[in-house]
Design goal:
heterodimer, A: mainly alpha, 2 domains, B: alpha+beta, Phosphorylase Kinase, domain 1, Aminoglycoside 3'-phosphotransferase, Chain: A, domain 2, five-stranded antiparallel sheet, 16% strand, disordered C terminus
Chain lengths: 139, 347
């Protein structure tokens, strides 16, 4: 357990200094760079706040999708998840199988709705890290 | 990084003098211009002594950026496209001289006349909203687009465009195959984009009348000076294709820079369609345009993903490329939103 403040808090504090006290002193030509840096810090802070929850949700949803639709290749990739890298590798293996199944037309028809729900949830989680305002424009 | 233009100055001056039939060419100033993840552009102030175009010239030198998307045309081909477009009366920077002698700069480049104005999308859309000239600008763009679409592969009298290959029988199918290839080349899989491409495969427009298409015709890729359109830029993706694809690319939400007008963030869609129909004599097929708008999001997502990869593993560290690598998420969400069965969308 780290001392306080946590990394998210540090990034947010740094971002406020960048935008509130450094930016006004910088020439106009540097504005774009500064905004990009601030954006990276914002994404980093949100990623730290979310932790592994979005990955775990994606994994669980992929598992449910696999069981419901019986995509054979995906089922074989299930393994114990120990850390983040394991989780990411397991998700990627399943996503790869999912992509093949989609391309082969296995989700056309009645399975489309289930896939649609899974993708909407997973992509929403991604956008919540990069640009949460965007999600609201589509709801 | 790009090329060392300063070091190449003497060779560059010799090339230009010969190409312009001048006794001497002097580069008075040279500066790197912003923009273009794929090409490097340099502004050049030039003085020519003697010859048919003696005098001062403001030019742009265009050459390849360090890493290049294989899909974009080489400079020699882009030069040929500019020549054809210029000949057809399309507002483009006049193409002047092409250099394929790599001893001059180390790579191919060409020179074109420098056009006044700015192209940055967020500035163009904001200025249009403030001036209230978005509809006029969009009408001018509709006329330019119509001129491009009047160039057709039959009669096949455009030998200089032979490099474009045979017109595709199924432009949508060809685009899907290309994007799938790019997805396969990426280290991570993208189920939402696969799903979008599957939708695209199952919902192809019934018929396409093939013409030359610009294929990157959007706000951000044309120059505006004092509220007026001065040039359509960035011809490196031009191809034979479905003209509705250009309308879809132009109207796609991802190229409106957050502005309200559905036509490029500067005007109403209906007005743009009407202007295009008047100028081109072609009927706009709204369903086909919608289809190509979905394709626009797919294509931009795949492109952005690969730009991010240039930062991650391509040895081209850049914050701009890095953040572009995170753009696909919102494009994916937009795609899912667009292709949702209509009944669920309403419910």
């Amino acid at each position: 357990m780290q001392d306080r403040p946590d990394a998210k808090n540090l990034l947010e504090a740094a971002r406020r200094v960048l935008l509130d006290s450094l930016l006004p002193d910088l020439p106009e030509a540097r504005l774009y760079d500064v905004l990009m840096v601030a954006r990276c810090m914002e994404i980093g802070a949100r990623a730290l706040a979310a932790g592994e929850a979005p990955l775990r949700r994606e994994y669980a949803s992929l598992t449910a999708l696999t069981e419901e639709t019986g995509v054979e290749e995906a089922r074989t990739t299930i393994g114990p998840q120990r850390d983040r890298t394991d989780l990411e590798q397991a998700i990627e293996a399943r996503n790869r199988a999912l992509c093949q199944a989609i391309r082969a037309g296995e989700f056309d028809g009645v399975r489309a709705a289930t896939l649609g729900e899974h993708l909407w949830q997973t992509v929403t989680d991604k956008v919540c890290e990069t640009n949460p305002k965007y999600v609201k424009t589509l709801v | 990084m790009g090329i060392d233009v300063e070091a190449a100055r003497p060779a560059l001056e010799r090339f230009i003098a010969a190409a312009a039939e001048a006794d001497r060419a002097a580069i008075l100033a040279i500066e790197k211009l912003s923009g273009g993840a794929i090409q490097d552009n340099y502004g050049l102030d030039l003085a020519l002594e003697t010859g048919p175009v003696a005098g001062r010239h403001a030019l742009v030198l265009r050459t390849d950026a360090p890493t290049v998307i294989a899909e974009s045309h080489a400079r020699a081909q882009e030069f040929a496209l500019l020549k054809v477009a210029h000949g057809a009366g399309v507002a483009v920077p006049e193409p002047l001289w092409l250099c394929t002698d790599t001893s001059v700069l180390g790579q191919d480049f060409y020179l074109m006349r420098r056009v006044a104005g700015g192209a940055a999308g967020h500035i163009v859309t904001k200025a249009a909203a403030e001036r209230g000239n978005g509809p006029d600008l969009a009408a001018a763009l509709a006329r330019e687009m119509a001129k491009i679409h009047r160039i057709t592969p039959d009669p096949p009298d455009l030998e200089s465009l032979a490099f474009l290959g045979a017109p595709p029988a199924d432009p949508a199918g060809a685009a899907i195959a290309r994007l799938r290839g790019h997805l396969d080349d990426h280290p991570l899989s993208h189920p939402a984009l696969e799903w979008g491409l599957r939708w695209a495969e199952l919902n192809k427009p019934s018929e396409s009348k093939i013409s030359l298409i610009h294929n990157d015709f959007r706000t951000g890729n044309y120059m505006v000076n004092e509220g007026k359109l001065t040039a359509v830029l960035d011809w490196e993706f031009a191809s034979w294709g479905d003209p509705m694809a250009d309308l879809g690319w132009f109207c796609a939400k991802c190229w409106r820079f957050g502005a309200a007008g559905e036509a490029g963030g500067i005007a109403d869609r209906e007005a743009f369609y009407a202007d295009y129909e008047t100028a081109s004599g072609r009927k706009v097929d709204p369903e086909a345009v919608f289809y190509w708008e979905v394709m626009a999001h797919l294509r931009w997502a795949v492109t952005a993903m690969h730009q991010g990869e240039r930062h991650v593993s391509g040895g081209e560290t850049s914050l701009d490329l890095a953040l572009t690598g995170r753009r696909p998420a919102e494009l994916e969400l937009e795609i899912l939103h667009m292709i949702k069965p209509r009944a669920r969308q309403e419910g």
